Structures are given as C-alpha cells and as structure tokens.
Amino acid sequence: MFPLKDDNPTDHAPILTIALIVANVLAFLYQLSQGPAGEMVVWKFGFVPYELTHGVELTPEAAFPALGSMFTSMFLHGGFMHLGGNMLYLWIFGNNVEDIMRPVPFLIFYLAAGVIATLLFVASGPATQIPLVGASGAVSGVLGLYVTQWPKARILTLIFFGWFIRMIWIPAVFVLGIWFVMQLLFALPSIGQQSGGGVAYMAHVGGFVFGLAVGLFYRRRRTY
Questions:
Q1: In whole angstroms, what is the distance from residue 39 CA to residue 24 CA?
Q2: What does the DSSP 8-state code read for residue 154?
Q3: Residue 218 has pLDDT above 60, yes or no
Q4: Which of 37, 91, 92, 100 has the fewest other C-beta atoms within 10 Å?
C-alpha cells in the first residue's frame, strides 16, 4: 500500500510542514553538490550509535558531536526514493498535525519524535557503526499522532498485488495500522544486530509509538 493523499482539510496554511520539506530537499541537494565528498557529509552529520555509546569518533576528519548529529541526521537522506517517500508522508499527514498543534509546538514535537526514534534505534543496536540518516523517525511520530486524531480520515491509497493495481480510499487507521505492523515485524529480527545498514525499522517503531502517546494526550485535550 502506498498513500497518495487524504481528504482531511486544514484551517491554516502548513507553513512549518512546507519549511521542513524545503529544508530536507536543500540538505539533500547539498549532499549531491559535494559529489564523492557527499559520503563524508553523511559520516559527519549522520548519527552513528557506536560513537554515542562508546564515546569515540570513527571519522576524526569529519568530527561532529554525536548529540548534535541526532538532529542533523534527520535532514539527510540516502537517495531520491528515501527523500521522496519521507517527504510525501510528511506532506500528507504533517499538515493536519501542524494544524492542531500550531507551528512551534509541532516543530518541538517533530524533533522530539526524531530523537526518541533515534534513541530506540541505539538501544536495539548500540554498537552499530553505520550512519543513520533520514526523516523517517520524525515522520513516523507524525503518523502516530495523526491516527489518534483522525482514524476515520480517508486516505487515497495505491494498492498493488502483482499485476493488480488500483487506487482506493481507505480509513487512516487501516493504512497506518498496517504500516506500523509491517515496521514492527521487520524491526524485531534486527534487535541486537551490530552491523546496521539498510532501513532503520526500529526507529520507525519508536517514532510512531511516541506519536501515539502524544496524540492520546492531544485527543483528550480536544474533547474538553
């Protein structure tokens, strides 16, 4: 399943959501502009769990504080598909979350979700020596909060099974619920592995659960 858009209108312009998308795109373009040196950008500003848990710098020539890279890594991506997927999800679901939280609280929430996601990833593989990059953890938090507020919102979703391809409107609780279960199933085998690399499914799980927790708080507040 691949979401394309929702039918959930907003009352305010999603200024921060757009700003975050622009920031991610600009950061990716900066990576590309560095050519072969773009890999060093990833090592410098990406987050490496081993550097935090062991207090060492694996690439002294590109030293950057591990705590700082928790934030900078959220704006780096491993490729066009990685960037495009994250930004599509942020655009579809972020505008509504920003609408109820307002820009500044939404920014704090977004960054906090990214940090929580990163910390759970560290806990699942503290000796991982591959840089973690991408907005996935923070965006996962947005998804978690969204589903607590608008579980019945309709999501236009691209469904494909082999040659069968169709676009169907599906309630958000099913689209995002299935997405979360898939992330959890993929994450479980990776717990304790030290090689890293690939997709940081545990970060997705951490961000989503954090979003659920914050979303339940907002849901209660909106009912009073």
A1: 17
A2: E
A3: yes
A4: 37
Q: Which of 132-141, 158-167, 188-197, 211-220 has the lowest mean pLDDT?
A: 188-197
Average pLDDT, the chain: 91
What CA–CA distance (Å, rounded) separates 58 from 44? Answer: 10
pLDDT at 9 over 70: yes
User: 66 with 47: CB under 8 angstroms?
Assistant: yes
Burial of 204 (0-12, 13-18, 19+ CB in 10 A): buried
Alpha helices in the chain (DSSP H): 15-33, 38-45, 49-54, 66-72, 80-101, 103-124, 136-149, 172-187, 201-222
Residues whose CB falls within 8 Å of the CB of residue 142, separated by 6 or more in sequence, listed in order:
89, 90, 93, 94, 97, 110, 113, 211
**Three-class DSSP category at 2:** strand
Say if residue 220's pLDDT is above 70: no
At 224 the pLDDT is 47
Q: Which whole-number Å values give the CA distances from 158 to 66, 95, 139, 140, 164, in the listed order?
A: 38, 21, 20, 19, 10
Tokens 């060492």 identify what position? 56
Strand partners, 6: 155
The one-character DSSP state at 62 is G
Q: Give the global pTM.
A: 0.92
